[in-house]
Amino acid sequence: MNKDQLYSFQEAMIYSHKLSQISKALWKSVEKDWQNWIKDYGLNINEHHILWIAHHLEGASISDIAKFGVMHVSTAFNFSKKLEEQGYLTFSKKEDDKRNTYICLTPKGEELLLQTLNTYDPSKFGVFSASMPIKELFGRFPEFPELMSIIRNLYGDDFMSIFNKLEEKIEASLDDQPASPVIAAEEIASSHS
Amino acid sequence: MNKDQLYSFQEAMIYSHKLSQISKALWKSVEKDWQNWIKDYGLNINEHHILWIAHHLEGASISDIAKFGVMHVSTAFNFSKKLEEQGYLTFSKKEDDKRNTYICLTPKGEELLLQTLNTYDPSKFGVFSASMPIKELFGRFPEFPELMSIIRNLYGDDFMSIFNKLEEKIEASLDDQPASPVIAAEEIASSHS
Fold first, then answer.
1. What is the location of CATH 1.10.10.10 in chain A?
2. Which residue numbers delimit the HTH marR-type domain (chains A, B) (predicted)?
3. Closest to B16 (Cβ–Cβ): which among A13, A122, A153?
C-alpha cells in the first residue's frame, strides 16, 4: 500500500462500526447510571450537566454550556431557562463583557449541586467499577490517549480545557475538606457485577 | 496507600467525570453522523441498528437485538414491529428453537440495508476522520484495549462476540465483490476539519 492509499474500505467499515458500537455501549451505561444518581433531585442529565459546568467555569455563556455539555445551543438555553425559573441560576452580564449573557449559580443552585456531589458513589457507576481491574493491574486509572486525541481532533483544543478545569476544581474543593476519604477494596469488590 | 485502599474519592471523581465526558462527546458525534447517513432512507438509528444486527447474526431474537444494540427490550421490540409492518423483516420460529421468536430480514430489508451500506462514506464520520492522524502515525487504527476491557466487564463476554461477528461478515461480504476500493489520502485530507 503506497502513501496515498491510507486505508481500504473494509478496514474503514470495520473500524467505524467498532467505534460506533463502543461509543454507544459506553454512553448508554454512563447515561443510565447518571440518571439514577440524580433522579431524586428532580434533575435530568442536561440540567445537572449545566449546573456542573456553570459551577466549574464560575460563570458560563450559553455557548460554553452547549460546547462543554455537548448539547445543542437550544437545549442548553431551554434547560438553563428552566433552572433559572426554579431559582438555581441567574442570567447576567459580566463586568468585562457586556455583550454576552453569563449563567451563574445562585446559592440555592450551588447547594443543590453540592447535595448531588455528596451522594455521588463511584461504585454505582458501571464504567467506574468496570475500570477497577485496570487500576488494580497497572496501579492507575486508564488515560485513553488515543481517544483523547480523537476528541481533540473532533471538538478542538478549547474543548479539552474542560478536563483540566474540572480536575483543578475538584482538587481545590476537596482540599478544603478535612480529609479525602479513601475507599477500601472490599467495598468495591462487593459492588462488582 | 495499602492494598485495601485502592483509590481516593478525589481520583474516583476526576476519573469518573472524565470518562462520562468522553463517552458523551464520542457518542453525540457518532449519533449525529449516523443520523445524517441514514436519514434519506426513512430510518432512525435504532431501526438501522436492528436491520444491521439481524443481518449480521443471520436471525436474531429480540433479546439479541436489545443486547447487541444496547437498547431496552421494549425499544427493540417496538422498532422491530415497525420494521415488520413496513415489510423489512419477519418474526418467525427457528427449526431448532421453537420457543423463541427470531427476526429475519426480508429481501426488501436486505436490499434497504445494502443501499445504506453502499452510501456509507467513512470520511463523513467525524470520529473516523479524527482517527486518521493516529492511523498515519502508527500505521493502524487504534484498538482501545482498555476500553474494550471496560466494555467486556460491563456487558460480558457474549457482548464482545458482536465485534468478531461483524468483522467476519464485513470481510466475507466485501470479498464477494470484485475489488475492495482503496481510498486515497487526498480525499481524506480534504474532509479533515
1. 34-120
2. 12-156
3. A122
pLDDT score, position A166 = 74
Q: Which residue has the cell 423489512?
A: B88
- pLDDT band at B107, cuts 50/70/90? very high
User: In which residue are the cell numbers 467495598 written?
Assistant: A187
Query: How many angstroms separate the Cα of B191 from the Cα of each of A67, A119, B134, B142, B153?
Result: 22, 45, 16, 20, 36
Per-residue pLDDT of A143-181, as tens digits, reads: 999 999 999 999 999 999 988 887 787 777 766 654 444
Cβ-based contacts of A19 with chain B (< 8 Å): 26, 30, 127-128, 131
CB-CB: which of A10, A148, A162 is closest to B180?
A: A10
Could you read off the pLDDT of B48-104 as tens digits, one per residue?
999 999 998 888 999 999 999 999 999 999 999 999 999 999 998 777 777 788 999
**Residue recorded with cell 454576552:** A100
ipTM for this prediction: 0.86
Which A-chain residues 110-139 have CB contacts (< 8 A) with chain B?
A: 117, 120, 122, 125-136
Distance CA A192, CA A130 (A): 8
Closest CA to A59 of A117, A107, A100, A105: A105
* Chain A CB within 8 Å of residue B32 CB: no
Query: Angle, nearest 10°, between helix axes A157-175 and B9-38?
Result: 150
Tell me the C-alpha distance between B46 and B34, whole Å: 10
* Min Cα–Cα distance to chain A from B126, Å: 6
Least confident of A168-177, B31-40, B143-152, B171-180: B171-180
Beta carbon pairs, A and B, within 8 Å: 251
By the 10 Å C-beta count (0-12 exposed, 13-18 middle, 19+ buried), B147 is classed as buried
pTM comes to 0.86
| CATH number of A34-120, picked from 3.40.718.10, 1.20.1090.10, 2.60.120.260, 1.10.10.10 | 1.10.10.10
3-class DSSP state for residue A6? strand
Each residue's pLDDT tens digit, A62-72: 999 999 999 99
Does A37 touch chain B if contact means CB atoms closer than 8 Å?
no
